[in-house]
Amino acid sequence: MAYVLITQSQKVRGAQDSREKQRSERRGEKRPQSKKTRKQRNSGKEKVGVQENCIIFDTDEQYGKRLMCAISRHKNLPFGVQLFTRADEMEIYLEHHTADMMVVSETCCEYGAEKPCEKQAKKMLVLTEEQKTAGENKSGNTTEVREIYKYQPADSILREIIQFLGGKEQKQEDVELIGVYSPVYEPLRSAFALSLTQVMAESGRTLYCNLEAFSGLEEVLAAQDRENLSDMIYYYRNAGAKVTEQMKQMIVSLPGFDYIAPVEFAQDISSMQTQELTEFFLKIAKECGYQKVVLEISSAVASQWKMIFACSRVYMPVRQDYISVRKVQAFEKYLLMAGMEHLWNRIEKVELPQNNLQFNAAYIGSREGEEMNGFVRTLFTGQAAKNP
Fold first, then answer.
1. pLDDT of 61 strictly over 50
2. E strand or H helix that includes residue 146
3. Is pLDDT at 250 greater than 80 in this prediction?
4. Distance, CA of 84 to CA of 97 (rounded, Å)
5. Which residues contact residue 91 at a Cβ distance below 8 angstroms, ignoring those fewer than 6 apart?
6. Tens digit of pLDDT for each residue in 190-199?
7. What is the pLDDT of residue 25?
8. Which of 90, 243, 284, 349 could connect to 84 by a Cys-Cys bridge, CB 3.0–4.6 Å?
9. Which of these, 192, 215, 211, lies nearest to 363 by C-alpha position?
10. How many angstroms separate the CA atoms of 1 and 169, rounded?
11. Which residue has the higher pLDDT, 141 or 115?
């Protein structure tokens, strides 16, 4: 099925043409063909002014609709967009039209390379299941081909589309996602994440979000009886994936940083697709003016590696006991076997100080908290030990 993104001018003109055709048929007249229509028919390509045409083709209908919906929310795009989830319908369309660009899932590329894609599209953006060389360019018969990772925020994919077409996107300040994740049980992981947030906030507005099923941080964050991430996700979905004023008021400010209280119901995290959850935090940050978001990622997040990919950097607290070392080794082995070594390369292992630091309800603003803050600052000045 094809979903067409139509501009308001197209709707108006289409309605006028339809009414004119009906009046002509009632009078028994044959509607005259305009020079523009004849020219378009001869060229086999329809355009609205100089607007270019982009086709999205993915047999995963849910993913395709979500990507189409995210793109359609942006105004004044320099191109029109159509979505196809069936190859036969796209082929029929391409018999009479030419795409300036096609965004094609890697799983559909065998079809695309042999049939309409490379014959009809000037450029093709391939959405890969695994990240390869960022922005890798290849050449087909007459088509310029670029590969990008499929499971990243829709805004990032849109930027690639605009840049690949040679257009200019509207300048906006990027939001940086910083992850804290470890397959190892580290009791000070949350202490490190909170100190990381405080230090990050010294150079720009920073938001902390804990994604554990059971964080235990209610007293540390003074979050008892507060509306929390569970409530925010509920309102977000009911508002049609939009950030409302009510949601903004759920963000809590502490000296030095802001946070969203952790979920009350664990399934609120596990039930969300990783891409949806990532886009949720990006929207919150952009709407509320945050430059950075620190995400404490846990196994409650489906496909944690996909969220790791969305982060510009990831800190992994580790320990040197026998089991902890082997858990990290097993995690690294899994990423390498799954072809995701690029994720391992962006992870920085951090061995936290083990000096009887007390992580309790009084941690924020305490001497222990300041000690951890100082340790975090060494990471940014290059004084911390590098990965073993």
1. yes
2. strand 144-149
3. yes
4. 14
5. 115, 116
6. 989 999 999 9
7. 52
8. 90
9. 192
10. 29
11. 141
Q: Exposed, middle or buried: residue 249 (CB in 10 Å: 0-12, 13-18, 19+)?
A: exposed
Dihedral sign of CA atoms 348, 351, 357, 358 in order: positive
> Rounded to an integer, what distance in angstroms lies between the CA atom of residue 226 and that of residue 186?
27
Q: DSSP of 59-104, one letter per residue?
A: S-HHHHHHHHHHHHTSSS-SEEEEEES-HHHHHHHHTT---SEEEE
| Average pLDDT over all residues of the chain | 75
Find the helix packing angle between 274-288 and 61-72, rounded to 10°. 10
Query: What b/e readout covers 108-124, taking b as 16+ CB neighbours within 10 angstroms?
Result: bbebbbeebbbebbbbb
Q: Is the pLDDT of residue 223 over 80?
A: no
**What are the tokens at 31?**
């509607």
Dig out the tokens for 156 from the structure: 């990032």
Strand 101-105 versus strand 79-84 pairing type: unpaired
In DSSP terms, 326 is beta-bridged to none
Cβ pair 300, 270 in contact under 8 A: yes
Buried b (16+ CB within 10 A) or exposed e, 137-150: eeeeeebbbbbbbb
42, pLDDT greater than 60: no
Q: Which of 355, 351, 381 is nearest to 202 (CA)?
A: 381
Tokens at 114, concatenated: 């042999």
Cα distances (Å, whole numbers) of residue 204 to 278, 289, 373 = 20, 10, 16
Residue 152 has pLDDT above 90, yes or no: no
Angle at 176 between CA 172 and CA 177, to 5 degrees: 140
Asked whether the predicted pLDDT for residue 272 surpasses 60, the reply is yes
- Ordered DSSP codes for 328-345: HHHHHHHHHHTT-HHHHH
Query: For residues 81 and 154, what is the distance between their CA atoms, to the nearest angstrom?
Result: 14
The alpha carbon dihedral of 70, 72, 78, 81 has a sign of positive
pLDDT in tens, 112-139: 444 444 456 778 888 888 755 444 455 5
pTM score, whole prediction: 0.55
